[in-house]
Write a structure and sequence with these properties.
By secondary structure, the chain is of the alpha+beta class. Helices cover about 30% and strands about 25% of the residues. It is globular.
Length: about 325
């Protein structure tokens, strides 16, 4: 299916930039055609008439939505394996995902980076008179931006949390903190989003609780997770490709957490390095399409890969 046909079906925004560049030769030779280059992954149209795309994860890295001239070898392979596991976990819970069980030819050198995906569009609804897309976030612990908001007497999600709560307070039941999807991630009233999507939110809440328990049994503390919901060509809601992965969640090893060492086993290490080296400030001068040139020590790259490997080994 051509990209023009995908756009005509309403499954790809006309405003979203596509590319005319050629992709990986062994895929192009089989009729897969590169049409979108993302920060960390690329999308290909598939041969045939089915409404699906091929997602190919690269080893590229990004933090704070800053495109970087940085790759960490094999990261994309590890990410794909963790993503496949998250999708399988969701499917066992009775939740559809955009990731198809069908695979590309496993003899291809690029196969470990590939996921065939059902074509979907982002879930939208009207909240307070404005049509928005959503990121549905569940939290087990009070930390990060929500902790700062509580300390400052702010209540961005309408949860009425006490300002006396300490950082890393564990909630008796996960709390729901939805935001808009996009660069700004604007907080939304939790109750209003529940009212609009009662079945979706309750299903994902159960998924998050069950996964938290499963991960805990396998030596991983799940701090929080972001779940992105899409709508397929049949009008059914489905989860995207980052389901219960380090790209969408904060995972901490149980041994570190119990020692009060709250270090995420993901690219948080890279985010911290970025803060120390003022990448956000440096990125302000980037022109569209440009990447920030960065130097990252091998020790940090290895630590990131070690985190992904530990997550994969424990969850599998």
């Amino acid at each position: 299916m051509k990209i023009s046909e995908i756009v005509a079906l309403g499954l790809w925004p006309e405003t979203k930039k596509t590319t005319t560049k050629k992709g990986i030769k062994e895929l192009e030779d089989l009729g897969y055609n590169l049409f979108y280059i993302g920060k960390n992954a690329d999308l290909y149209t598939c041969p045939g008439e089915d409404a699906k795309v091929l997602l190919v994860r690269s080893d590229r890295c990004s933090v704070f939505d800053i495109p970087l001239n940085l790759q960490i070898e094999t990261k994309g392979i590890l990410q794909t394996a963790i993503s496949n596991h998250g999708a399988e976990f969701a499917k066992k819970e009775g939740i559809r995902t955009a990731i198809l069980s069908e695979t590309v030819d496993q003899s291809l050198s690029v196969a470990p980076r590939c996921q065939l995906m059902e074509l979907c569009k982002a879930l939208e609804a009207e909240i307070d008179g404005e049509t928005v897309q959503f990121e549905l976030i569940f939290r087990n612990y009070l930390t990060g931006s929500l902790y700062e908001a509580c300390q400052n007497g702010k209540d961005p999600y309408g949860l009425n949390l006490s300002s006396d709560l300490k950082q890393w307070h564990k909630f008796e039941t996960p709390i729901f903190t939805p935001t808009t999807k996009g660069v700004k991630d604007i907080p939304l009233n939790s109750s209003k989003v529940r009212e609009v999507f009662p079945e979706i939110v309750s299903s994902l809440e159960k998924l998050f609780k069950d996964f938290t328990a499963y991960a805990d049994e396998n030596g991983i503390i799940v701090v929080d997770t972001k779940l992105e919901v899409f709508v397929n060509s049949k009008g059914e809601w489905v989860l995207g490709d980052e389901v219960l992965t380090p790209e969408s969640s904060r995972f901490i090893s149980k041994e570190n957490f119990e020692n009060q060492e709250y270090i995420s086993m993901d690219k948080q290490i890279l985010r911290n390095f970025a803060k120390e080296n003022n990448w956000k400030e440096k990125a302000k001068d980037l022109k569209p399409g440009e990447k920030l040139d960065v130097e990252v020590p091998t020790s940090i790259k290895n630590k990131i890969l070690e985190g992904y490997t530990t997550i994969l080994d424990r969850l599998k």
